[in-house]
Amino acid sequence: MIFQELRINPTRLISRVERLGKIGALEGGGVCRLALTPSEKLGRDHLVAEMKALGLDVAIDPIGNIFGARKGRREGPAVMLGSHIDTVATGGLYDGALGVLAGLEVIATLNEGNIETDLPVVVAAFTNEEGARFAPDMLGSLVFVGGLSLAEALDIVSIDGKRLGEELEAIGYAGTDQGPEEVAAYFELHIEQGPVLEDEKVEIGAVLGVQGISWTELTIRGRSAHAGTTPIRLRRDAGLAAARIAAGVGAFVRSMGGDQVGTVGASTLTPNLVNVVAETAVMTVDLRNPDEGLLQVAEAKLTALIEQIAGEEEVTIERRSLARFEPVDFAPALIETIDGTARVLGFSTRRLFSGAGHDAQMLARIAPAAMIFVPSVKGISHNITEYTEPADLANGANVLLQVTLKQALPTNGEEA
Amino acid sequence: MIFQELRINPTRLISRVERLGKIGALEGGGVCRLALTPSEKLGRDHLVAEMKALGLDVAIDPIGNIFGARKGRREGPAVMLGSHIDTVATGGLYDGALGVLAGLEVIATLNEGNIETDLPVVVAAFTNEEGARFAPDMLGSLVFVGGLSLAEALDIVSIDGKRLGEELEAIGYAGTDQGPEEVAAYFELHIEQGPVLEDEKVEIGAVLGVQGISWTELTIRGRSAHAGTTPIRLRRDAGLAAARIAAGVGAFVRSMGGDQVGTVGASTLTPNLVNVVAETAVMTVDLRNPDEGLLQVAEAKLTALIEQIAGEEEVTIERRSLARFEPVDFAPALIETIDGTARVLGFSTRRLFSGAGHDAQMLARIAPAAMIFVPSVKGISHNITEYTEPADLANGANVLLQVTLKQALPTNGEEA
Predict the structure, then answer these.
(1) Residue at A416 is within a domain
(2) For Zn(2+) 1, which residues are the binding ones (chains A, B) (predicted)?
(3) Is residue B265 within 8 angstroms of chain A, CB to CB?
(4) A290 and A398, same domain (yes or no)
(5) Which of B146, B156, B200, B227 counts the highest number of beta carbons within 10 A?
(6) What is the pLDDT of residues A243-262, one digit of tens each?
(7) Domain total in chain A
(8) Which residues form the domain of B268?
């Protein structure tokens, strides 16, 4: 393979991660760049400046996705390297940022080598991947692939009551450009965010696909009452109903075993006072499984649980789907390319499913897509202690570089 | 009995309730006058003005308790009629306010009749009875009876992070006066806040005492992690632990039956996001029973539950007592006076325990104390739909007037 000896610059890659990590940095480590907030705007400004410094043509589309294009010898479908730079409220430096910044590092390496590719290479940062401020998650890539209309997306209201369209305008990222018309292949380098690679001492994960995701919001309505004088039999306690549902989710997820996971990450009582029986509770249930059939089993268990508790606690429970994605399989040829390339580079590899949702699963709707995973220390992510070893970051970026060359160079490579 | 035909003015009493109810009024009904907030300050200003208009000598003590004194023929221990005007965040018009405003109505009735009592009659409004903003509840009366030092009380920090002493200063109610040195008898008229009187169609409750109260705050610390990629076996989910404890409290309270009640009214997760396993949960547990032994049984069950869940969910749980009051018995002679007087006035009566804490239980430490209950529609309180029929308000105030006369007039009444 031509350019097989080409490598990214590890020091420069780490510097990229550290510099973006200073934007929205939290005391004690980690970052908070919730989508379309002032700190995320600063992250976007930084990214756009870096893209321009590398000579990329920057395009912002109407949902705020950022594309930086390096021209190819011909105008054809783009090889796209992407991820996101928004984070959860207590996020780490690597989730999302790595895929975008490694894309920049690939561009920098191609520039240094004066390497002209046949196809354009585009680095992409998609809007609101985390879904921590606007539901659903993976919103920017969903709109990009046509899975949700722009008008609907702009009308989404954030957890802090702001309309997405106005928040985009407010930070100056309601663009008028369009992203690449056609994508030849999409690669996303990402930290695993789970413990498998580290446990098995594997350096590179070739990702088979993404587990299915089901997010439900429950609004439980009871009756507020004095906590001292209202006999138990006369109560309609929304807080107790919420607790029993959350505990029940924990129990049925454990009983299912296997790859099933379930989380009640958010739960808010009103009025939330020590001596008042809660009148309402709003809670979320996050269920995931790589097997669609099993995910549906979990959803059915949730439905039965809700009906049981609503009856027993004499409360009403309104449910709303915040997100529902079936499991996604990545392109077999790209999985094979990633796995084979990593082994040629001397890395140990493993194929595995992703436990988290990623923009790649949206891109898979319109183009061959696949992901490269590198190990997460202790499997921790969405946490300020999220960490990946510098060597692993560099390994992943080198795999990204090589698979990009394979897709973007002419098939026979003789003109390069 | 002399003055046995004397009655309060029902229209004027309702007007008192309605006028105070406009201060801190919520859309849709009810009021929010959390202790020492700007809206409660306005309520205090209104009360002080009403007291002065009735010719009372107003004294504000260093914890902000308000006393309005009507002189007696001699300087002796005072007959005190009191309660509180602070409310929970979504409170009603009657809880607390009735006891204070009926006290004013008693004074107005005495004034109209040019009735000179032997002992002074004092109307009292105690600071922070609800405990919704500062723990413990019944704080002002607790300090008044010497159960908590002023210095400690002033250092208490509110749920919104403010020091009590500074909040008192800010609203101008850090007084320098002292309340009555000696209390001959304390009467508190209050809505039942429970369903018993209404269910049994009884007009006046003679309160036997107050059930014991145990408030505990739990701080649960786990580890935040990605909700999709962290296998269940590797989680330390503070939210799941909190839910299991809240559901467990609900279960053991039901299994104990009898008069035991238990409530998890407040529970807050951090970071409280759909796709992040909660790192911390802070929750409160409110346990009450009129029997001290059974209350201790409930507390022991809570302790066992906490230890079990901490172990099973691999979280740490820190516990802090927010309040602990043993059951209180009221003065038998005053209970008999209330019950007998009400029957003489033609009302049906019943003796019962209070399910809620009241300032009267603090006063009972230093003086004979008792309470008069009137029915609560549907037993609802700490809720904007809290309601008591006008006739019941008037009945309760007339009982208050008559028992006040019995205590404050000379024993033989011949000089009146």
Answers:
(1) no
(2) 84, 95, 190
(3) yes
(4) no
(5) B227
(6) 999 999 999 999 999 999 99
(7) 2
(8) 212-325
